[in-house]
Amino acid sequence: MLQYDDNAFYFVALSFITIYLVPSWIHILSRVKSVLFAKDEAIGAISRTSAEKQKAEELKKESKGLATLRKSEPFMINLGITVFFTIVFLWLAVSVSTDGEVNTFDPFSILEIDSASDNKVIKKAFRKLSLKYHPDKNPGDRAAEAKFMMVSKAYEALTDAESRENWEKFGNPDGKQSLEVSIGLPNFLLETGNRNLVLMVYLIFMVGVIPFCVWTYYSDSSKFGEKDVMYDTYSWYHHVLSEHSLIKALPECLAGAAEFRKRNVPKSASDKQAIGQLMSDVKTQMQKPKYNHPVCVKGNVLMHSHLLRVSEKITDPQLADDLKYMLRRSTALIDAMVSVCQHQDSLQTATNCIEFGQLVTQAMWVKDSSLLQLPHFTEEEVKHCSIGKGKASTILEYREVPDDQKKGMANFTAEQKDDVAKYLKMLPDISVETKVFVDDDEDDKVYEGDLCTIGVTITRNNLEKGEKAGLIHAPRFPYPKQEAWWIIMGTKEGKIVHIEKVGNADRIFRHEIKFLAPRVGTYEFDLYIKSNAYVGLDQKQKVSLTTLDNSVLPEYKIHPDDAELDDEPTLFEEILNANIEQDDSDSDDSDSEDDEPAIVEKSDADLKKERLKKARQQTDDDSDSDDDAEEVYTDK
Predict the structure, then answer these.
(1) 234-238, 358-362, 625-629: lowest mean pLDDT where?
(2) The dihedral formed by the CA atoms of 109, 114, 116 and 120, expressed in degrees to the nearest 10
């Protein structure tokens, strides 16, 4: 008989808890392993030059050690839940091990007597329990009612010969059962005193907790769009960015992103005072703000402190953390700016956003020389390099200067000079080749309406064969960043034809730009190859495209085999032909052969064509279409 069974509940609870505990502990242990035994290369904590040592140490502190896990709120919440359910799991396991047999029908235990008891003891126990749990004495008590039924069934199993035989053979007084089951719920749910508590807990979970969890998950996930950027941020970018947006205005645009609106709200007078002091150091290089909201002002000032390399003056630890948070999200947010520019079809603003991303990575501003990317270089070294014999005003020019003639390192130590040499070797040196073609064409001519392809092949000349590009050298950017290249093609009018960031790390990689060839004429497109992190390495090329008139193309002729396929019947026509043939055979049988004139025997091909014509005519007759056009089929 079905009954609430504590032991069955233990098994059910163990099963459900295990479903959560196994993947949760795997995740927790993998996180612990990653923070204790992760390699430096895996977390980007590499120091190829002495300038990167401090950055590498900071990354190790943030990514290694159990202290980093304690700072992660989601991890700690999951750990607490997992530990709680683990304790419950162990308690259930102990309960099952001590009394783990799922309830079976045992009349002696139900009557609370020994298995060797005689009929007198059985009857006495039955009278006692039946009086105790009788429904008349326990009105409305479902637990007592269920117990009374079990007592009656147990008494019947021990006093009735047939019922006892069934119980001894099959474990049930009613005979062999198709399935022996128990209800995997604890008995206390049936107790009258717990009824209100059970109902209250049920309502709290079903009406409160579960809907709240679903609403929280949906409301959080619905805020984010592509690249894990909030929809409010995209709306803000659409409002702020235009085809006339300059690089100087982009820090304020980034500061207004929705991701920073809670974090960058000044929370006290001391916060406002600290922002005011920092503003005095960067105000001369800032464009006049368009928005005076505290969030925009604070984020704008923090970004300029980084771009102007005065972030060391930030004494408030909270402000320093806020700046690091902005820099951590900056890559995705700047990519979102480019996406908005693509939607607005604004080529110049898109290139400005990409260049702004380069400046953020290298902690430089619009008027700074690209030589500031060199390790240990300051304005003084840059000024020395740009004057006199063998001067170099850009980093590309400086790389071409022979090592013994390079300027700006007179006061450098041997280690610092070695850092500069290492940096120049790892600095990307790319060559770009383009080719215009149409897939599967025998020549290189492009005709109006063709699907045209511009193949862009980029070769990293600074890498050896089989070597791959690594992380960007950016000591002042606190997070690792992989080398990538933006490939952009636009028109002379400033419209975007194609824009995409390619993160391929191979020495030689190829990217294809596909678009429909425009009208007849000669066109010239601008092709930009821009780094995602380095300043001064961008390239610009002209791509010419001549589109010819497609009317001069030879007429397309159908192959005879393809033409014959047009005469082949469809599946529907074949089925219809079978019916027509059957009707023709019945008609031939009914007519007298003597009355018919002589018939010239036709070939199989002629017969097939006639059947096809009849099928199509019958289809036209049965059609309900009111079209005036008549389809004519020609047999070839």
Answers:
(1) 625-629
(2) -90
